[in-house]
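Have a close read of this protein, sequence plus structure tokens, and explain what the tokens say about the fold. Thanks in advance:
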Amino acid sequence: MKFRCLSLILAAVWLLPGVAQAIPARAVTEAVELGAKISGRTLSPAARTAAETAARTAARQYGDDVVRLVGRGGLEMLEQGARHGDEFWRLALRNPEAARSLALHGDQLLPLVRRVGPEVLVLEAKAPGLAARVAAELGDDMVAPLARASADDASRLLGYAAKADSPATRALLLEKYRASRYPARFLEAFNWSRIMATGLSAAAIVAAYKISDGIESGVETLAEKHPERFVEVLGTMLAPFRWGLLLLWLILLYPLARWSWRLGRKFRSAPSGKAPETERKDDR
């Protein structure tokens, strides 16, 4: 009976977070120092003690990883954790790479995560503030696609959308980005200097989409939906090839034409009744 009671007590102690293993005081002190450096703060002795106490309390409740998050995200982690409690620490522990973003923008990110999903923090891990900006300027439905892209692609798309000449053009840009097989290549196909000077047009979007996804797909669609225009477009595409082939023939025929012209001139200049030599000695 005593053995069973002792086993139950040990099991309960093991399951209680922070009780089975005490957090080393040095680890807490180092995490607070790192957090203060990231936050750009100089702590007084009283402020340091308060921060260490808050970190130790949160770690007892949510686990030792909380201490490491403070050292990674800054002292704002403790402030956000005090405001938002379980939800904040749960998201931070699942997405440690977004710790700094959560520390700085937790008030905006938590409602966005509830509305859109965990992709918000994947995007935030690329650049603090990026997910909130994408949701505000491009819409909630663009957060997930851009979470799979690079931070550069997200910034480029935001820039192009801001230069769209109309809301319809902006909507077309987002539609083609989502539909593209190669979204990064689609964004790279734009001429940024021209867009800066004249704005983003629907024609530029369609051209970039066809270039990035391959001209053959555009030709196939045209042949299926608009057969009357297919021959015209195909002729335009083949025009450079036809001119190149003609130039090649001219280059190949030039020696023959020159030889014929020289031979004809010899016949015309030769005395009557005497056959001219076909080649000069210096030409042999």
